[in-house]
UniProtKB/TrEMBL annotation:
Keywords from the named record: ATP-binding, Chaperone, Cytoplasm, Nucleotide-binding
Location in the cell: Cytoplasm
Pfam families found in the cross-reference section: Cpn60_TCP1
Keyword Secreted: no
UniProt cross-references to InterPro entries, sorted A to Z: Chap_CCT_theta, Chaperone_TCP-1, Chaperonin_TCP-1_CS, Cpn60/GroEL/TCP-1, GroEL-like_apical_dom_sf, GROEL-like_equatorial_sf, TCP-1-like_intermed_sf
Name the UniProt record assigns to this protein: CCT-theta
GO cellular component, one term: cytoplasm
Domain of life: Eukaryota
An example Gene Ontology molecular-function term: unfolded protein binding
Family named by the database record: Belongs to the TCP-1 chaperonin family.
Amino acid sequence: MLNQYFQRDVSHICCSSYFNAMSCHEAVEVQLSTEYAFRKLNVLSLCTLQGGSFGVQGMLKEGTKHMSGLEEATFKNIDAAKQLSSCVRTSLGPNGMNKMVINHLDKLFITSDSATIVNELEVQHPAAKLLVMASKMQESEVGDGTNFVVVLAGELLIQAEELLKNGLHISEVIGGYNTALAKALEVLETLVTHSASMSVLKSPTELAEAIKPVIAAKQWGNEDLFASKIAEACVLAMPENPAAFNVDNVRVAKIIGNAVSGTTVVKGLCLTRSVLGTIHEVRDAKIVVYGVPVDSSTTETKGTVLLKSAEELKAYNNSEEDALEKTIKAIAATGANVLVCGQSIGELAMHFVEKYKMMVLKVPSKFELRRLCRTTGANNLVRLEPPAPEDLGTCKHVYLKEIGSTWCTIFDQEADNSKTATIVVRGSSMNIMEDVERAIEDGVNVVKSMTKDARFVPGAGAAELLLADALQQYGEAQPGLDQYAIQKFGLSLEVVPRTLAENSGLDATNIVAQMYAAHKAGSTSVGIDIVEGTTKDCGVLDLLVTKKEALKLATDAAVTVLRVDQIIMAKQAGGPKAPAQPAPYGD
């Protein structure tokens, strides 16, 4: 009735307003078009009332999910981040627990490394993915502190949730967190207690002391062994200009057998591959590297040869053999005595290579081939032809060695400044060696960070608690509402010493109180001694750049989650999903 009444009135107004200025025929057309428009409006209104959606949901495609507001969007995002943070929190510190993760390829990971854990969990929630991305960025930028990023970001969101429930606006929380971050970075510069010179990067003993806390967090009990091996390898691969240090020049070779105490360092490159011929050792080697098959040459197109007699067939075969022998002889004439091939080597080619007393090694991995070229100075040739003098690589000693039950080819430069060093890791299982490899990679990345900034702050939770105290005092002095967020930021930093104490089976509240008292008394380097279960200056140092990057990434991740007030998810496309492509090994 309402629609009919409204339709009649509007029609009457339209007709009466323009009737005097129009002809009768035009007025009838206007009235008919108006009636048609209102009939269409009635149909749309009826469809909406019978099952359509109102608001944003009615605007979007069917199947799209839309959530908005604190309860539906913000708090749900915070909860997802909290769950991820609590998952890796128990892995923080030397006494952190391992996680057993089995990924979609049924590969088993047993590790306490946060970057590996969050990467293999295949997190789907978009808010939790932000923390995963922050952890990956910390891993790529510094190589250490990934767990700190996830745990701190989760704690910042927990404290923000409490402020939001108490009535504080999101903009005040975000503003307070950004202000607190700027103040924390400023205070962190004043906490530097030790600054290493560039000479430390040339001293294995001093370098081992600097990276020992990083290794202790991953391999508690073996930190002395691995820190010394990493320092030795890094010093061997350190160029004249430390800023040009390349982490890829320190390689890891995993060989099953023995215990982890059997880990050694090779001055050069160790390949877990055996040679193909009978020559197993070469001194003062000249190395030629081919990225193409070493075999008889073939044409790119198919061809037909007409042979009329056995003599012609024999002559044809002899011509192929003579051509291949001529090529191998020319290669040997350049002085090359080690031939490395990235592809197949024919039987006939092997015969002639053996004839001219050359060691043969097949390296199908293009990454290992690239490292071999970098180690020896050889060029990877793309045509089977005699190399120029500048294409040949050199090595003091190339030999085959059996380590455990694995035959390895070692390119030993026998020099204290070799371009590449290899840490040969031993262990009873592949999982143990992979965890050791991750610890070694973290240690090498920290050495790389030291080439940029070699300043250190107190470790064992001391720096975080000093920042927490400074920020809470700074927050109390602020007049605006953001003071509450600044104080909560400081309170969030207490999560590190608390977690270290909890993971060591200690009373976290008592430990934190003792540390606060010691810091007030002037002993600012006092941290948690997990061995004796008390607080004292253990001499533990953390790299300043690690803390700075972790604070920035954790705060950015938390603020990004808080800025989201609506979640709009489209319906998933049909069909199977394409699997994520992993990064190539060693790249």
